[in-house]
From TrEMBL:
Species name: Arthrobacter psychrolactophilus
GO MF entry, a single one: beta-glucosidase activity
PROSITE patterns according to UniProt: GLYCOSYL_HYDROL_F1_1, GLYCOSYL_HYDROL_F1_2
Protein name: 6-phospho-beta-glucosidase
InterPro entries: GH, GH_1_N_CS, Glyco_hydro_1, Glyco_hydro_1_AS
GO CC, alphabetical: cytosol
GO annotation terms (biological process): carbohydrate catabolic process
Domain of life: Bacteria
Pfam families per the UniProt record, alphabetical: Glyco_hydro_1
Family under the similarity heading: Belongs to the glycosyl hydrolase 1 family.
């Protein structure tokens, strides 16, 4: 094949491909103290990951209102339906169901809210996909138990999932256990509800917390199959291809080692055991985990599919003089000098998505689902022929280029079920807690200072995505 040429893939996507969008409860719902909801870690993160948590809720936390999806979900879901969504990925806020996380009984008001959301999705023929835990650990579990460093969290999570599966199992087919599970290593409070400052945590602490999450994920996968035999349970990984900065073998090995840091979580979810390269890393770095025989048995309950987020790629080098971390590189790596970056320093690499999809499919042979992909930008609301909108051609270009690479991966033979853009409507950013970092096809009139009407306006990309969906991808170029 060395001299072979490949023609660009064209035409529509496979029949039944699930097009849609994705959000998270803490970034859209608001109503942080309504409906019996308890506090979550997000209620003490007014500036996202850019500063240490506050003692309690503060008025400058945009997530207290967010975009008020809690009260406007009917309007928003109708807009999603107008775009043609086949699927909508959303998360359930754990502290709406168990306000403290360790409550004896669930909060019926919280369950009723999500039942109403499902009613609207069913009304419009939109398939729900539920993320069970999306950076929303109940604050009490974080502060009383130390978050996922504590094995007791497994039972609390199982109880939470059991309630969700029993209440909504007949209505939801697709479930994701933890959002971007590999991010615990980099953002332990956000991802694992671990209140100890990161610089005071050992690698043993972090990997033990992740082990508890992996065991919890596997246990509820088994539970789901008992309660909802028709359901599909997936893991969710932050995908980020790693390229060697130069062809030097040292850089290639460095890139491989960094890539292993993310592969490990998919390997465990898909293969049911810890991979050898991770066990070697533990040995070489004096990391000893408490792993029981029951844990090992539980981990064999592997997922049905692999979902992932994709925003950027990075490069790696073994040369200390060149190891300058990029501004937006939460997961490490150095900027790739051949790529442009977004306003927030993330390298824009559409072909990296094809690389990831081929990589994951060949590695795990599990159906893939792209559940996050998009570009954050400072959109400008303008008036065109008396209608307020955003001329976001940059977003259209970004999305088009990435979806073209999804089509290429499908032509390569990758089994991919669907694609949900992040976030289909403007949301409060997880990393910076800003609203000015906009991702959606729908503009929400709210600003970083909390001002605004909360009115919704269709961006230019709204109509573009509507055409992409209605043509099943045939309009991509």
């Amino acid at each position: 094949m060395s001299n072979a040429t490949f023609k660009p893939a064209t035409g529509a996507f496979p029949e039944g491909f699930l097009w849609g969008g994705a959000t998270a409860a803490n970034q859209v719902e608001g109503a942080y103290n309504q409906g019996g909801k308890g506090l979550s870690i997000q209620d003490v993160m007014p500036k996202g990951i850019t500063q240490r948590p506050s003692e309690g809720p503060t008025e400058d936390n945009l997530k207290q209102v967010a975009i008020d999806f809690y009260n406007r979900y009917e309007e928003d879901i109708a807009l999603f339906a107008e775009m043609g969504f086949k699927v909508y990925r959303f998360s359930i806020a754990w502290s709406r169901i168990f306000p403290n996380g360790d409550d004896a009984e669930p909060n019926e008001e919280g369950l009723a809210f999500y039942a109403r959301v499902l009613d609207q999705l069913e009304k419009h023929g939109i398939e729900p996909m539920v993320t069970i835990s999306h950076y929303e650990t109940p604050l009490n579990l974080a502060r009383t138990y130390g978050g996922w460093t504590n094995r007791a969290m497994i039972a609390f999570y199982e109880r939470y999932c059991e309630v969700l599966f029993e209440r909504f199992g007949s209505r939801v087919k697709y479930w994701l256990t933890f959002n971007e599970i590999n991010s615990v290593l980099h953002e332990p409070f956000l991802s694992g509800g671990i209140p100890t400052p990161k610089d005071e945590l050992s690698e043993t602490d972090l990997y033990q917390a992740i082990h508890h999450e992996l065991v919890a994920s596997a246990r509820v996968t088994k539970l789901a199959r008992a309660i909802m035999p028709e359901a599909k349970i997936g893991c969710m990984i932050l995908a980020m291809p790693v390229y060697p900065l130069t062809p030097h073998p040292d850089d290639v090995v460095k890139a491989m080692d960094t890539a292993h840091g993310s592969y490990a979580f998919g390997d465990i979810h898909c293969r049911g055991t810890y991979p050898g390269y991770l066990l070697r890393y533990f040995r070489d770095n004096g990391i000893e985990l408490n792993i029981t025989e029951q844990d090992r048995e539980d981990l064999t309950n592997t997922v049905d599919f692999v979902s992932f987020s994709y925003y950027m790629s990075v490069a790696e080098t073994a040369d200390p003089a060149k190891q300058i971390k990029g501004a937006g590189n939460i997961m490490g790596g150095v900027p790739n000098p051949t790529l442009e970056a977004s306003e927030w320093g993330w390298q824009i690499d559409p072909q990296g998505l094809r690389v990831v999809m081929n990589d994951y499919w060949e590695r795990w042979q599990k159906p893939l689902f792209i559940v996050e992909n998009g570009i954050g930008a400072k959109d400008m609301l303008v008036e065109v022929d008396g209608v307020k909108t955003v001329a976001d051609d940059y977003r259209i270009q970004y999305m088009n280029d990435h979806l073209v690479q999804v089509r290429e991966a499908i032509a390569d033979g990758v089994d991919v079920t669907g694609y949900t853009s992040w976030g289909c409507i403007d949301v409060v950013s997880a990393s910076t807690a800003q609203l000015s970092k906009r991702y959606g096809f729908i503009y929400v009139d709210r600003n970083d200072d909390g001002s605004g009407t909360l009115n919704r306006y269709k961006k230019k990309s709204f109509g573009w995505y509507q055409d992409v969906i209605s043509s099943n991808g045939a309009t991509l170029n």
